[in-house]
Each structure stands twice: as structure tokens, then as C-alpha cells.
Amino acid sequence: MPDTAPTELAKAIVAHHAATFAGFAPEPVPAPTSSEPAYLAALHAASTLGFIAHDAECIARAWQARTLRTGAMNPETWPDEPLDFGLQAVPRAQAFAPGPDALGLYAVLPDAAWVGRMARAGVPTVQLRFKSDDPTAIEREVNAAVQAVQDTGALLFINDHWRAAINAGAYGVHLGQEDLDALSPADLQTLRHSGVRLGVSTHGYAEMLRADAVGPSYIAMGAVFPTTLKKMATAPQGVGRLQGYARLLRHYPQVAIGGIGAEQFPEVLATGVGSVAVVRALVNAPDPEAAAAALMQAMKAA
């Protein structure tokens, strides 16, 4: 199927889903890896809808698998069956220790003092995102964060510093894609056997499949909206994509993250995610405790 002349089937896919995935510029169509008509149509359509090459390939493969499974190519329904994407069957052969089905309000915080403050404010899930290259400072901050959540009921995840997290007895670890890829098989086995819970960041279909391969305790999806907190390799995903991701990952606890403020809570939670991660909505608030209470109330209302 030439890039300049998409088939009627590809046009139908685009027509049915353009509103859901609005706001993305078309991407170049990657080199096809199959000659199946359903695959080729979906690859072209996904690229037209703005999915990057790796994600367009995942979508096209899933559409092909669904077509073979059902015997019909339905352009009206976006693929969302885990088996069509090749996700692990439940119960998973590879899996980390489970956590809650819904992590609730998830506060991402810069140091142990903030961790303790938000844990005492009743935030159910907190993450220490402490940036340092000093091993001594990292160990000190991780230990302080573990102590800070004692007797609060808050679940503490440590961003990146997984060895220090295990040594300190933290509840969980959160890793990005690059951190996950950097783990050796022995490192991954150490993490899994420690009993620590694992959360993994994802920014699209290909990264979700990569995360599923290790069976994390939850999967984070974003950035949903523009954020200035870190440089993102991918464009903001938007609520339409988030809803598709949430349907596909429905057997995982899910965390939406990235530029989410109180005003976006209803539309984000309507996608089916069980947790919303926030940073600026708390650390930049005039009264962080009051902001936390308002956000938790917004989650209950939604």
C-alpha cells in the first residue's frame, strides 16, 4: 500500500478515530514488516493519526492479530485486547509482587521532607524523586523517606535508586524505560526476589509492551498533558490515547501522569485509570495540605 495512496480501509480507520486522537501531526509510515492487508491498512492509519513508528507497528500488529482471530477487519473499533498485543496472560508468568488495584492520589516529591509532609496529610501513595549523583546523599534521603512514612499508611516508591530502596526496606521502586533497559537479568531477578513492588513509566504502546514483559506492579502512562518538569521524548499523549491505553492495560493498576491539575481530574479519571500522579499541584501550592485534601476529594467525586 503506497504511502501516497492509502486504501479505503485505512481511510475508514482514520475517519472513525480522528476525533479521538485529534491534535497529532501525521508521522512518516514506517517500513512494513508484513504484507497482510489488515496490517498495512492499520500501519498507514496509525501513522496518519500521529503515532510514532514503534507504536504504529504495535497497533498494526494488534489489528492484524484481531482480524485473524475474529475473521473480520472492523475499522470502527480500536484494538484493545491484551492477547492481540501479545501481553502476558493473567496470571502472568513473570510478575512482581502486587499492590493495590488503585493507588489513588500519587504524589511525586523531591525529598524526604516533602514525602513525610504529604504522607502525614493522608496522601495514599508517595514517590521520592531525589536527583543526585552522590551515593551517600541518595542513601541518606531514601532512608529518611522510609522513616518519614512510618505509621502513616502511605505507600512509598523510590524513583531510580532501586538498590538503596531495597536496603532501606521501601515498599516499592519506580523505573523509567531507560532504567528498566539498563537492568541486567541478575538485577531484575534481585529486584523481583526482594519482594519490592515495581512501577514502570510508559509513553506509548511499544513501551507498555516492554513494561508488561517484566510484569510490574503498576504501569504509569503519560505525559498526558504538557509538562515543564522534565524534557519528554514524546509529545503529550492526551486523554484520547490515555483511554485506549487504559482499556488495553485494564488488568494492571494504572497511574496517569504529566501536567495533570485538579481541573483535569474528571476527564482523566473517566478513562478508567485508578490513580493520578501530581507534582506541581502539590509542591507549588500555597497550602500543600489543603491542595492534597482537595485533590483526594476530587478523586472520590470522580
Describe this structure in words.
This protein has about 300 residues and is of the alpha/beta class. The protein folds into 2 domains: about 10-85, no CATH class; about 105-300, Alpha-Beta Barrel (TIM Barrel). The chain has helices at about 10-15, 35-50, 55-70, 80-85, 110-120, 135-150, 160-170, 175-180, 185-195, 205-210, 240-250, 265-270, 280-285, 290-300; strands spanning about 105-110, 125-130, 155-160, 170-175, 195-200, 220, 255, 275-280. It is globular, with a radius of gyration of 20 Å. The chain starts with 7 loop residues before the first helix and ends with a helix.
In short:
With 302 residues, this protein is an alpha/beta fold. It is 44% helix and 13% strand.
Task: For the structure shown, list the relevant keywords.
alpha/beta; globular; 2 domains; eight-stranded parallel beta barrel; 14 helices; TIM Barrel; disordered N terminus; 302 residues; 8 strands
